[in-house]
Amino acid sequence: MKQRIGLFAHPHNPDALRWAEYTAQRLLELGAEVCIPVELALRLPSPLAAQLLVEPLDRLGTLADIIVTFGGDGTMLTAAQHFLRHGVPLMGVNVGKLGFLAEFSVNELDTALHALLQGNYRIVDRTVLEAEHRHVRYYALNDIVVEKHASPRMVRLRAYVDEHHIADYRADGLIVTTPTGSTAYSLSCGGPIIAPNAHVLCLTPICPHMLTLRSLVVPDECHIRIEVLSEDGAILVPDGQRQEPVAAGESITVRLAPYVLKLVKHAEGSYFDLLRRKLLWAADATTIPSEP
């Protein structure tokens, strides 16, 4: 039975579209079936698109065995929002800058596609956050951020863990991150790097006004409640994908989602190899070539 590979690309990135086109052609040559959303089909050459299974985006997750994304980590996060509930694994091909989630490079694409069709890869499960506000639920692979509006003033937040009051924050915001997201926004705010198989969540303040406020790591079975104290309110940002207003006095509850996201990884290697390669973690500064 042919493997059915779905393709998902950043719609406004010419390099992402070019590599999606290349991959569609290569997969056909390798004997795979390729399915793409209508939006991508409109950006591919008509003779090629005619050979592919073109479906609405919301059906791609039910049809594909694996979905390959083209872009950067932001494209991976967008794909996660679309396909999380389907349980389909995502393989990220990086055509951006860092590519920590989208760890496959275009330089290894041919090798990676052969390995994919031969089953020579790993699938890892990553925890996902669920935030609830006004009875609406939002999902995030990396982080849930509650931050100030477009205002020079800091936001005031009160945080609880399992209804235990832990702190009042005067800051630019507060990040609740998964282990996967610990190397993203939280890291840039001084948060810790957390191994992805650790069963924890982390609360990291953004530019706090008090030196005593630091990141707090809690078990991932905890429920976190964030109350907005500022009269100006705040905004809720799941994975940087959207902004939802939160009024003064309202609360956001954050907990583990009932889903996990499946990521396709290299057959060999570890998370720590990725840290060293992508973030230069534990690198010896004396051995890093300097720019001329």
Q: Give the CATH class of the largest domain.
A: Mainly Beta
Ends: how far apart? 54 Å
H/E topology pattern: EHEHHEHEHEEHEEEEEEHEEEEEEH
Helical content class:
10-25%
Q: Give the total of beta strands.
A: 18
Give a verbal description of the structure.
The chain has eight helices and 18 strands. With 292 residues, it is an alpha/beta fold. It folds into two domains: 116 residues, Probable inorganic polyphosphate/atp-NAD kinase, domain 1 (Rossmann fold, 3-Layer(aba) Sandwich), CATH 3.40.50.10330; 131 residues, Probable inorganic polyphosphate/atp-NAD kinase, domain 2 (Tumour Suppressor Smad4), CATH 2.60.200.30. The strands form three sheets. It has a six-stranded parallel β-sheet, sandwiched between helices. A six-stranded antiparallel β-sheet has the order 8-7-18-15-10-11. Helix 5 links the parallel strand 4 and strand 5.
